[in-house]
Specification:
- This protein is α/β, with parallel strands linked by helices.
- The protein folds into 2 domains: 33-259, Spore Coat Polysaccharide Biosynthesis Protein SpsA, Chain A; 265-385.
- Helix content is 51%, strand content 9%.
- It has 13 helices and 7 strands.
- The protein has helices at 6-16, 45-56, 75-83, 100-108, 130-139, 161-174, 194-200, 211-217, 245-258, 265-291, 296-319, 327-357, 362-385, and strands at residues 33-39, 62-68, 89-93, 115-118, 144-148, 190-193, 225-229.
- Strands 3-2-1-4-6-5-7 form a 7-stranded mixed β-sheet.
- Strand 1, helix 2 (45-56) and strand 2 (62-68) form a beta-alpha-beta unit.
- It is elongated, with a radius of gyration of 26 Å.
- It binds guanosine-5'-diphosphate and magnesium ion.
- Residues 120, 122, 124, 235, 240 line the site of magnesium ion.
Length: 391
């Protein structure tokens, strides 16, 4: 943790309860740096971060934009209380939405400052490197300056081993899609020039947690990047929100970047799950028909039923993880999935049969039938089974 005294934090909190001076005689300077901070349950960390920023950014005109996804611990309300008496502070609260990347992008869109920094609220990012990052992006021809843990002078600190390995693997993979050579593409701490951000923003995916990879991979030209080392700190307050979905979200971001946005990554995942379902179907058919000696009709019906249930569970966990069904809605969803997929199967068979009769080769007819039912199943289940909740 930084050497921030508790005095600085209480000063931030004291000012929040005081009325502002009515006649401030200072001439307002244009804001040079905006710091975008995504937050989810970071109530305790907000005043600590603000005090830290005030301490290191004495020579800069700056503002901070928190983007909070309606944290249950009341983070947004806490920020609003502090913002009333401090015009540097703003908060954008999103209701019924989650997502680190999308929160960050929306925060970045709120500012007119020429340089935009992105950092976490949990004090794991060392704010004292901010002035150095700003200096470099201002004085050198650069689009992005990344605070890196993987170059001399930086480190992962006490980050858990498995997360370090994952981060390194992710960085290596990212080189295939990023238009630059960078050692820590998994970093969530960087400064970007607003003109560069504006160029790439229409192509951003906004999927997952790896906003830097998204920003770099969305460029149509080589990105001018520099890295500044820092030591990643441990979290003192609150807990990490990243879970097993990190890998999945990252995979989806890569799919999105690689397929040039022709196909929605969610659909790719749906088809992958469906393909696994075919294997499950075959395995069950073998078991029931060959091993248990049931009739073909019974075996295939049971196998289809198992495969559909398997697909539902996997889609609920992965493909529609952001709309995951639980409790009673899970049961309702399962039935809706059975119905949608049964109609899909009928469509598949009748369309393939129609093509086959029209002298189309059997395998082309078969693939076309499957393609039609995949699109049907995806669309219908998205609208009825995993419909967007209003909450
Ligand atoms: N707005 C928003 N912020 C998030 C979300 N998930 C994480 N964050 C914030 O993003 C930052 C990084 O998250 P963290 O859990 O510390 O990730 P870790 O450091 O990789 O373990 C923190 O400031 C979190 O509060 C989210 O879904 N929405
Ligand atoms: Mg963190």
């Amino acid at each position: 943790m930084s050497d921030l005294g508790s005095d600085a934090i209480s000063e931030i909190e004291r000012r929040a309860s005081e009325p502002m001076a009515l006649h401030d005689t200072r001439v307002a300077q244009p804001i040079e740096l905006a710091i975008v901070v995504p937050t989810y349950n970071e109530r305790e960390n907000v005043p600590i971060l603000l005090a830290a920023l005030e301490r290191v950014l004495v020579e800069t005109e700056w503002e901070v934009m928190f983007v909070d996804d309606n944290s249950p611990d009341g983070t947004a309300e806490r920020i609003r209380e502090l913002a009333v008496t401090n015009p540097r502070i703003r908060v954008l609260e999103r209701i019924g939405r989650r997502g680190l990347s999308s929160a960050t992008i929306e925060g970045m869109l709120t500012t007119g400052a020429p340089y935009i920094a992105v950092m976490d609220a949990d004090m794991q990012h060392d704010e004292s490197v901010l002035p150095r990052m700003l200096e470099r992006i201002k004085t050198e021809p650069l689009d992005v300056v990344v605070a890196s843990r993987n170059i001399a002078g930086g480190s992962m600190g006490e980050f858990p081993r498995n997360r370090v390995r994952l981060s390194n693997l992710g960085s290596r993979i990212s080189r295939a899609v990023c238009h630059c050579d960078i050692s820590d593409a998994m970093s969530g701490f960087f400064v970007v020039e607003r003109t560069y951000f504006k160029q790439v923003v229409p192509r951003l995916s906004g999927t997952g947690f790896k906003i830097l990879v998204d920003l770099l991979a969305s460029s149509t030209r080589e990105v001018r990047v520099a890295e500044v080392p820092y030591h990643f700190r441990s979290r003192e307050w609150g807990e990490s929100k990243l879970n097993v979905n990190v890998e999945l979200e990252y995979l989806l971001l890569l799919i999105d970047k690689a397929l040039g946005r022709c196909v929605p990554p969610r659909f790719v995942l749906f088809v992958l799950v469906g393909s696994l379902g075919v294997l499950v179907n075959l395995a069950c058919l073998t078991l029931f028909f060959q091993v248990a000696n049931a009739s073909f009709l019974v075996s295939q019906s049971l196998a289809t039923f198992v495969a559909m249930t398997f697909n539902f569970v996997l889609n609920n966990l992965a493909t529609f993880r952001d709309r995951r069904l639980r409790g009673r809605r899970l049961v309702r969803g399962l039935f809706s999935f059975y119905v949608a997929c049964s109609v899909g199967a009928l469509l598949n068979v009748s369309f393939a049969e129609f093509l086959h009769r029209a002298s189309i080769p059997w395998y082309v007819a078969g693939i076309a039938g499957m393609a039609i039912s995949a699109v049907w199943n995806y669309g219908l289940n998205m609208v009825f089974t995993w419909r967007r909740s209003r909450a």
